[in-house]
Batch of 2 targets.
Target 1
Amino acid sequence: MMQLIEEHIRVAVIFGPGDRIRPVWFDWRRRKYEIRQVTSRWEERQGAATLFHFAVSDGATLFELTYNATAHAWRLATVDAQ
């Protein structure tokens, strides 16, 4: 079951050519999560802001991370803690 979180988080990323962004790990509630797989990515516009969404897994749990390219801010949107 997906659980809505919507909390700011700290994310380590690798920026590649163009708009390529690959999250590597993130901190949430004083715990570090290593990202083992990016299962999906998409982008959307909210007014003037571009939001990049990443569905990622640490091997046990599925998370949705969102990067606001205008505000340069990361949020943990949802968690699927089956």
Target 2
Amino acid sequence: MSKLNTYEDAVAAYEPVLGLETHIELDTRTKMFCGCSTTFGGEPNTQVCPVCLALPGALPVANRAAIEATIKIGLALNCSIAEWTRFARKNYFYPDMPKNFQTTQYEEPLCEEGYVDVTVDGKPYRVEIERVHLEEDTGKTLHVGGATGRIHGATESLVDYNRAGIPLVEIVTKPVPGTGALAPEVARAYVTELRDIVRSLGVSDVRMEQGSMRCDVNLSLNKPGAEWGTRTETKNVNSLRSVERAVRHEVRRQSALLDEGIKIIQETRHFQEGTGETSPGRSKEEATDYRYFPEPDLAVMEPSREWVEELRASLPEPPRQRRERLQAEWSLADKEMQSVVNADAVELIESTIAAGAASSSAVKWWLGELSRRANEAGEELGALQITPAQVAELQGMVDDGRLNDKLARQVIDGVLVGEGSPAEVAQKRGLEVVSDTGALEAAVDEAIAANPAVADKIRGGAHAAAGVLIGAVMKATKGQADAGSVRQIILDKLAG
């Protein structure tokens, strides 16, 4: 393949079909089948035991809290909850699988046939959920000695089993056709909505940067009216922005291959954060025989209807309804609220308001200056090193007249590089507005003396000319004067 197609040319010729598989680590205190801690960041191989290391004779016991959390997720995704289900063994070898099989659900998932509704560019899309099932996570392999962090070129591989056995929920969509050119945005909107739903339930922190939420992006292309094409599966995409970029790249890549008459290979692929491209993983042209069979050491699960209904009654306000309520409280138009959602700023703005800022100010900072900074850095808005409380403090200093917007942006510079709170940065950098009336009057006098013709115009009633003198004062005070105060001083001094 010589080059990628443009995205516009690709979607003009082909129709994309999406499929998304999302893995979410549950925020339980202990692992799925043993009592080991699930705390993130422990020293390697310190949170393990005979059960999660699969030592001979060790027997698993299912974690009730994980089952309850999975049912809650299923209910929130409009799924039906099975009256009878069981675990199975999925047999395959990987170094990070101490058992050489994964305990998962196969033919009898806990939750089935749900849906998630999203809106992109004012158009509604329904993403149908095929299944939500419960399983255990694998360990983590670290390849060292190479330049890429992958096995190719590495001199050795290390395995940390702390993550092995952590409860993992897999949410699998049905194929999603009909998204057209908006396929990347629909994929991102779905994963965003899914993350918000799960987070609202309090069953996972869904922090993609820590791997507690990971997405596999399936994509195929077909000519309009033709059968669906061969799909690829881009594994373990770990940010909302990357989900969108992975879809966009696969559309461009696959369309270029199809234009050249090259068959798409059914394979797994890896997303490269630095380039926004995908690279080949392993071929999946032939179905793998995982030799599933029922897990003999675990009892069948039969969630009672009473329990399910108790859990349904305990569900919080759905994120979609919550957004509609917040939109009304914040007095935002539909397009403005969609921008907030697209920027993943709902929680950030709500927390900023809770910290004391007006809704209009919170929206202004997060959708304006801070979104610009995040885009320039190529990272999620929430990853910026500034908290909602600090944004509220910054706005408070503007409201008190201690900062203007220009100075506030310079304060943000300092906060983002770790110089402290807005107040600390303003003090260290000497950025607060000059409020000393004597100093301002002296600066105005100098500006009038340097611009006598302009001063005469103002004396004659041409008050618009005051802008020239205001600019001179602002320059002399390095932008730290309050423009409104300076204007009033100028007009008072030159009043006829």
